[in-house]
Amino acid sequence: MELIVGKNGIELIHKSGNWLLTKELGYSPVEMIAASVGGCSAYVYQALLEKVGIAYTIEKVLVSYERDAEKRAEPISKIEVVFYLVIAEQQQAEATKLLENIAKNCPVISSLNSNVVVQEQAVFVK
Asked: What is the tens place of the pLDDT at every residue in 40-56?
């Protein structure tokens, strides 16, 4: 990966178009960390659901985060990932249980400081 200083700030070069790393025009680096946790969690959750044969449709994934204002750099203290998905009612309990396996199979979560709390939740929609 390569970062450059462009006319609008720091950019991550990508063949499909550069990503602006400034909150005003793109995503801040902190937002990208939270989004990376959400994206990795979604990939892992899909793999877990498929491995046990649960049919699903992920409608959307919402990611939110909190920062620790008590510390100078205000690092991320918590990331919440909420999956909105369609799963047959008889398989929802098993799908909920699989959430417990996301963190240990997600390299992004494994790379975070151990002080960062990551919570995943499934909301079943029809």
From this structure: 999 999 999 999 999 99
Q: Is residue 8, in this structure, part of any structural domain at all?
A: no
Quick one: 91 exposed, middle or buried, by C-beta within 10 A (0-12, 13-18, 19+)? middle
Distance CA(126)–CA(120), nearest Å, equals 20
- Report strand pairing: 76-86 vs 57-67: antiparallel
Please state, in angstroms and rounded to a whole number, the distance separating the CA atoms of residues 104 and 102. 6
Q: Among 45, 52, 10, 57, which residue's Cα sits nearest to residue 121?
A: 45
Q: Strand 117-124 and strand 76-86: pairing?
A: parallel
**What is the C-alpha to C-alpha distance for residues 20 and 58, in angstroms, rounded to an integer?**
27
Residue 90 corresponds to which tokens in the numbers above? 């008889």
Number of domains in the chain: 1
What does the block give as tokens for 19?
Answer: 């990503």
Instruction: Kindly report the CATH number assigned to the domain that includes residue 93.
Output: 3.30.300.20
Model pTM? 0.90
Contact 108, 63 (CB under 8 A): no
